[in-house]
Amino acid sequence: MMKLPLFLLLISLVTQTSLSEVTISVTPTTLQKSGDIVTISWSNVDSPSKLDWLGLYSPPDSPHDHFIGYKFLSSSPSWKSGSGSISLPITNLRSNYSFRIFHWTESEINPKLHDHDHNPLPGTAHLLAESDVVVFEPGHGPEQIHLAYTDVEDEMRVMFVVGDGEERSVKWGERDGEWSRVSVARVVRYEREDMCDAPANGSIGWRDPGWIHDGVMKDLKKGVRYYYQVGSDSKGWSTTQSFVSRNGDSDETIAFLFGDMGTSTPYATFIRTQDESIATMKWILRDIEAIGDKHAFISHIGDISYARGYSWVWDHFFTQVEPVASKVPYHVCIGNHEYDWPLQPWKPDWAYAVYGTDGGGECGVPYSLKFNMPGNSSESTGTRAPATRNLYYSFDTGAVHFVYISTETNFVSGSSQYNFIKQDLESVNRSKTPFVVVQGHRPMYTSSNENRDAPMRNKMLEHLEPLFTKNNVTLALWGHVHRYERFCPVNNFICGSTWKGFPVHAVIGMAGQDWQPIWEPRADHPNDPIFPQPAMSMYRGGEFGYTKLVATKEKLTLAYVGNHDGQIHDMVEILASGEVLSGDDSFGVDGGARTGVVDSTFSWYVKGASVLVLGVFVGYILGYASFSMKKNGNRPSWTPVKSEET
Fold it and tell me: What positions does the domain Purple acid phosphatase N-terminal occupy (predicted)?
């Protein structure tokens, strides 16, 4: 009578052994700072599918479909055996993490659920395992440190993020560890209810942004390297950072300028992220280290993080730029992906197709509070959200007067912004700053003639170009188009022989975003570009990169650096006398550049020092570059037209 139940019991035990539960483990479970790496290991996945996936969750109790990001288990070489591991750098979101493994097959793909690139989002019906919680250890100080100018020349602003609203300070001095001054930082934050639309105000896109602290270091000597830390005795201090203060007595200007960079994540998420942003930061850090104790700053002209309502992407962005932004001021202007939403206050009839939903419902709130630029420009959102700030402002550094404008808010005649631009340009002291550089997001001139923005360009030509030409703007820099293009000195589509009355325009939106392969030949006309290169376009290229500006009172040089090799691929030299020099005519139209280029002194000492200083980036990049190339799908490829960069 007992043999049958015993036999069944043995069969049951054998079955349980062969169908063991999936196991998942994470090491380590305690982290110190953003960029620390965790390894997630699993075993006993029965009949693994190439679509089985690992989800990242923060907070750990988030619903299954509220992941931060995901990786396919097939990115592990041993995945077919049912076991494997994935290592990832983790960004501190001021809440704990957990990891979950799901089984997913092609037959379960829901075409109605897809990401920004129309890839299907992974299914959550079959949870296989969930990890222990991973925590960030307290006491290691603030993160996301970034500098900026104030309206006072002998000051430097520093901003950072922590997980609570308790008092934090900045302490600084001329020697590391010898802090001669301390200043308490003010603190701000924003709430989910401040967001204007989805996904920013939805349960998937929203994560707690932490508390944003803003301190000012005052009474700085001119052109001196200062060391600083941010934090508190009770909560911990950051590692020591340093910067070189502004020097109003110096004629030299050094700046690194670009638009549309974004950030990279080591996993796939709901939106496209920008892997090329890592290379942009790497080469700029090389250049900053190469110039030693010279003062410089960064200019990022719109489309900053491309978070588009997924708040943790901002955390990735500031973590990625911190190695640079903690050393030199990081200046910005607003782009469509920080601001645009359906009910934005200024949307004239002609702009119906221009301003859409590109901001992901953020309506400028994270941009306005995470940065604090000079000036006091602001526009009401018309909602409970705080006013949009950092719209237009200006400052002098060395021989150049820099002006930042907003193409997303009212700029036409009679507006507050128009009046600011007019008054600012008319009051420039050209004996002190002979060169004037204006920067905004959407371009006034581009050969990428996207139809949607045509009304915008017409209004800029009507209202802003006369101000630029009348007041002898030297250089106008724009983003939005994700390519580099430099024009002749131009006024009303006519090339001039001098920049006086004919500003040089350049599009520099090539720092990371790759969404816009618009110079490819058409399939049925492989030899004809969609938008032919006009005569006034002196150079245009498809390579990612950034620009370097170096100026004295005699000459301003703008150079385009390619991310693929860190070398200069285009250059223009603008003399205070009015001449615009680009070398000889050795490059033909079909070569991308219409004129040759000549290396500047700056390019030579950067080249000479680059080999020695590239190593400074390795420690940080190990956490991000090694894992940035996601195996969840290839980025679209393209071949540039009329360019050397193939």
Answer: 142-244
